[in-house]
Amino acid sequence: MGKWIDSLWRNYESAVKRQKELVGTMQVGSYVAIRDLETIRVMVDRLEVEMAALDKAAEFATQEDGGDAAVKIGIEEIRKKLGGFMRNVEELGVQADVCSRDIRWARTVVLQRIIKQPN
């Protein structure tokens, strides 16, 4: 009877160990994905600030009392800010690709661990 109970106990210990490893793998994958998503959030916040600056420059350029000089200054300001804005949009696209790749990697690792485990 003791050998049978010991055998059951070892099987349960083994199953718990495998599940613990799987949960650890899932935690690592989640951490990476959350970190990537936080980076994207920061980049989106930066784009919102830049969009507000572009909006203000457009409002300045379209003021009726400013005349042609205000339009020229406003357009020049928009051109300057648009370059940085477009760079940040491209960086956001790259970061979104990195995040997607990291999430796919984490999912693949977790699935491989699940498949590898004996029933």
Structural class: mainly alpha
Characterize the largest beta sheet: strand count, sense, and whether it forms a barrel: none
Radius of gyration: 27 Å
**N to C succession of SSEs:** HH
Number of strands: 0
Multimeric organization: single chain
Q: Kindly state the mean pLDDT as a whole number? A: 87
Task: Enumerate how many helices there are, as a single number.
Answer: 2
How helical, in percent, are the residues? over 70%
Through-space gap between termini: 24 Å
Poorly predicted sequence stretches spanning 5 or more consecutive residues: none
- Global outline: rod-shaped
Number of domains: 1
* Beta-strand residue percentage: under 5%
Main location: membrane
Coiled coil: 37-64
InterPro entries: DUF677 (IPR007749)
Pfam family, one: DUF677
How is this fold's topology laid out?
Layout: H1 2-61, H2 67-116
What does this molecule look like?
Helix 1 runs antiparallel to helix 2 (67-116). This protein has helices at 2-61, 67-116. The radius of gyration is 27 Å and the shape is rod-shaped. The protein has one domain (2-116). With 119 residues, it is mainly α. The relative contact order is 0.13. 92% of the residues lie in helices and 0% in strands. The mean pLDDT is 87. It has 2 helices and no strands.
Write a brief structural summary.
The chain has 119 residues and is an all-alpha fold.
Task: Jot down its keywords.
membrane, single chain, coiled coil, 2 helices, transmembrane, DUF677, transmembrane helix
